[in-house]
Amino acid sequence: MSHISFSELRNWLHCPHYHKVNHIDGLRSFNGNLFTSFGKALHEVAEKLVLKEIKQEDSAAYFKNKFFDFVDELEDKDSQDGELFEQMIPQGEHLANLIFPALVAEFGKFELVGVEELIYEDIEKPEDLEIGDRKFKGFIDLIIKAENGKHVILDWKTCGWGWDQRKKTDPKYTYQLVYYKNFFAKKHGIDPKDIEVYFALLKRTAKKDNVEIFRVTSGPRKTKNALKMLHNALHNIEKKNYVKNLLNCEGCELFRTEHCKRN
């Protein structure tokens, strides 16, 4: 294990045994569904729009084609919900038309810095915990420079009606951007004070405000707490502490399978 991503860290926080099955044993218990296909298609639309590789008027059709492609790639596509699939097509087309106008409304005239930028940076070693040499790996959806001169890191998230305030402040979600900011700053030698981080929610079923862009706090204290969580996880992974989190068995695809039987 030479690196860790935020999704892998979240799997560890969900259940160390679940993390072991997926990331140490390499069995990959989850291989995608309609929701992940929908999200991937809208990510593609957003990327092509900011790169000016597709026109605004073509964004809906581009979404539909990519959505169909990603669904076709699903291992169990024949078992997917046909009614949900049909509902997602107009929902995604509508969102595709809103993405770029929402960026302009939030940030004004911005300068594109990068899309899908790879972050692969050394993780600082704490003095009080034993961890090996590890890197943090991630791909930043969008980096722009706003009119105020700040670098803006933005991550697209597809969802249903949206996120409540609890989820908007939950470390299991917000720390993703804190890590991105920390390691992006180190990669480019930028003062973290000159970087702001945002989520952009692409909401399928909301009655209004289908694209919601909101800033996440990412100051020194929050960064310190986020790194502490990362260090603790790495320490336990190194020690092979793969205890089962029985509180999260409900809804887990491993539950009562050969890979996770309750003792």
Describe this structure in words.
By secondary structure, the protein is an alpha/beta fold. The protein has a single domain, classed as Lambda Exonuclease, Chain A. 44% of the residues lie in helices and 19% in strands. It has eight helices and six strands, in the order βαααααβββααββα. The chain has helices at 6-14, 16-24, 34-50, 59-72, 82-107, 165-168, 171-188, 220-238, and strands at 3-5, 111-122, 135-145, 151-159, 195-203, 211-216. Strands 1, 2, 3, 4, 5 and 6 form a six-stranded mixed sheet that branches. A hairpin with a 5-residue loop joins strand 3 (135-145) and strand 4. Helix 1 crosses helix 2 (16-24) and helix 1 (6-14) packs antiparallel against helix 7 (171-188). The longest helix has 26 residues, at 82-107. The chain starts with a strand and ends in a 25-residue tail after the last helix.
Summarize the structure.
The protein has 263 residues and is of the alpha/beta class. Helix content is 44%, strand content 19%.
Relevant terms:
263 residues; Lambda Exonuclease, Chain A; 44% helix; six-stranded mixed beta sheet; alpha/beta
Shape: globular
The average pLDDT value, as a whole number, equals 93
User: What is the CATH fold-level name?
Assistant: Lambda Exonuclease, Chain A
Distance between the termini: 28 Å
Total strands: 6
What's the CATH class label?
A: Alpha Beta
Low-confidence stretches: none
Which structural category do the helix and sheet elements fall into?
alpha/beta
**Could you spell the SSE succession in H and E letters?**
EHHHHHEEEHHEEH
The fraction of residues assigned to DSSP E strands is 15-25%
User: How large, in whole angstroms, is the Cα Rg?
Assistant: 19 Å
Domain unit count: 1
Supply the CATH architecture.
Answer: Alpha-Beta Complex
The profile of the biggest β sheet is: 6 strands, mixed
Q: Please, how many helices?
A: 8
Query: Helical residue percent?
Result: 40-55%
